């Protein structure tokens, strides 16, 4: 499909720069797809009334790294102040090495040293550029390793806010709490699974009282989530692989939910992509561990999930394509037009939608 079919105009004031408080006070657009789609305005805290006893939610328990590092490139053969660079860590290669996306990548070369520091300059960390790939990707080997490296990154790193927020304000201490879900347990993401940001312990308790189960999976969101779709046609776009895991216990529990007629509702596109990667053509879920580069576009057959809770996504993004695949492209466009006209807040810190397509056969 042509990528420009997924374009739309969004007023700048629709982009949320901070989350609402409490988290479950965010607005929720309920989209019931079908021949005559039904759109209902609600709030996230209404979820227990929108789901039924025996249903299950699937949440992503990844934890966001303070993965953005600011530094100065040094070369032994050059003089002067050096060049300011930013490195976005996105895949650990070993105790002392990471893959990173660097800006400006063209100013770096193998053998360069980058000196990173905390904003106060109290903690410093040096890394050598070991290799350089395409699109600004570099391999960094740090002067520290293991737990010492982890502690240094935690001290000097910034929460990697999405570009549409970072362009309007700097990250701060509040983002370290705001940009983590209540489920965050396994560190490894450079972006939050943002649909999970809407949940509170009280909401989970109310869902449990309703008879709605909550099950966890892990998908570490990679730096590819920040990259735009540059191809003109979806067939020419290649997804970056991301590591994920579905435990045997979670697979068995979700199979049991479907077997008894309950609905499986994924919380976010990350959980959706992981569950659909682990499901068979016959609609059974297996334990799964590895990397997935699944790209879900209109025409994709969904093997397992029955509903999805997700935020409102960027134009021309793989995420809005996934939404269109799940509820239909025309329904997606109608829902987004309603959300914009009704003042819903978009993107990572914004509001959510609950997508409920036609009943599975």
TrEMBL record:
<keyword id="KW-0328">Glycosyltransferase</keyword>
<dbReference type="GO" id="GO:0051075">
    <property type="term" value="F:S-adenosylmethionine:tRNA ribosyltransferase-isomerase activity"/>
</dbReference>
<comment type="subunit">
    <text>Monomer.</text>
</comment>
<dbReference type="Pfam" id="PF02547">
    <property type="entry name" value="Queuosine_synth"/>
</dbReference>
<keyword id="KW-0671">Queuosine biosynthesis</keyword>
<dbReference type="InterPro" id="IPR042119">
    <property type="entry name" value="QueA_dom2"/>
</dbReference>
<protein>
    <recommendedName>
        <fullName>S-adenosylmethionine:tRNA ribosyltransferase-isomerase</fullName>
        <ecNumber>2.4.99.17</ecNumber>
    </recommendedName>
</protein>
<dbReference type="InterPro" id="IPR036100">
    <property type="entry name" value="QueA_sf"/>
</dbReference>
<comment type="pathway">
    <text>tRNA modification; tRNA-queuosine biosynthesis.</text>
</comment>
<dbReference type="GO" id="GO:0008616">
    <property type="term" value="P:tRNA queuosine(34) biosynthetic process"/>
</dbReference>
<dbReference type="InterPro" id="IPR042118">
    <property type="entry name" value="QueA_dom1"/>
</dbReference>
<comment type="similarity">
    <text>Belongs to the QueA family.</text>
</comment>
<dbReference type="GO" id="GO:0005737">
    <property type="term" value="C:cytoplasm"/>
</dbReference>
<keyword id="KW-0808">Transferase</keyword>
<dbReference type="InterPro" id="IPR003699">
    <property type="entry name" value="QueA"/>
</dbReference>
<comment type="function">
    <text>Transfers and isomerizes the ribose moiety from AdoMet to the 7-aminomethyl group of 7-deazaguanine (preQ1-tRNA) to give epoxyqueuosine (oQ-tRNA).</text>
</comment>
<keyword id="KW-0949">S-adenosyl-L-methionine</keyword>
<keyword id="KW-0963">Cytoplasm</keyword>
């Amino acid at each position: 499909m042509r990528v420009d079919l997924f374009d739309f105009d969004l007023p700048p004031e629709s982009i949320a720069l901070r989350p609402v408080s409490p988290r479950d006070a965010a607005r929720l657009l309920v989209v019931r797809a079908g021949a005559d789609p039904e759109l209902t305005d609600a709030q996230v805290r209404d979820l227990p009334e929108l789901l039924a006893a025996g249903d299950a939610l699937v949440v992503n328990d990844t934890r966001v790294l303070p993965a953005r590092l600011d530094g100065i490139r040094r070369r032994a053969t050059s003089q002067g102040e050096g060049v300011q660079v930013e490195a976005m860590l996105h895949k650990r290669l070993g105790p002392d090495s990471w893959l990173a996306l660097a800006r400006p990548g063209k100013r770096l070369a193998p053998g360069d040293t980058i000196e990173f520091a905390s904003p106060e300059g109290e903690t410093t960390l040096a890394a050598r550029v070991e290799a350089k790939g395409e699109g600004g990707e570099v391999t960094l080997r740090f002067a520290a390793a293991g737990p010492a490296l982890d502690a240094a990154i935690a001290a000097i790193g910034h929460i990697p806010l999405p570009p549409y927020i970072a362009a309007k304000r700097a990250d701060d201490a509040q983002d370290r709490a705001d940009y983590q879900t209540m489920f965050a347990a396994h560190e490894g993401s450079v972006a939050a699974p943002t649909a999970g940001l809407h949940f509170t312990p009280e909401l989970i308790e109310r869902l449990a009282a309703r008879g709605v189960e909550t099950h966890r999976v892990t998908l570490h969101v990679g730096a590819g989530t920040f990259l735009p779709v540059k191809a003109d046609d979806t067939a020419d776009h290649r997804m970056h692989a991301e590591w994920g895991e579905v435990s045997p216990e979670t697979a068995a529990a979700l199979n049991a939910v479907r077997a008894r007629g309950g609905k499986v509702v994924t919380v976010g596109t990350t959980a959706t992509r992981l569950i659909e990667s682990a499901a068979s053509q016959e609609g059974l879920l297996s334990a799964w561990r590895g990397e997935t580069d699944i790209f879900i576009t209109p025409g994709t057959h969904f093997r397992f999930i029955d509903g999805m809770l997700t935020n409102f996504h960027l134009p021309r993004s793989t995420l809005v394509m996934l939404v269109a695949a799940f509820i239909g492209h025309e329904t997606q466009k109608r829902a987004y037009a309603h959300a914009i006209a009704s003042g819903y807040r978009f993107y990572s810190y914004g509001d959510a939608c609950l997508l409920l397509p036609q009943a599975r056969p």
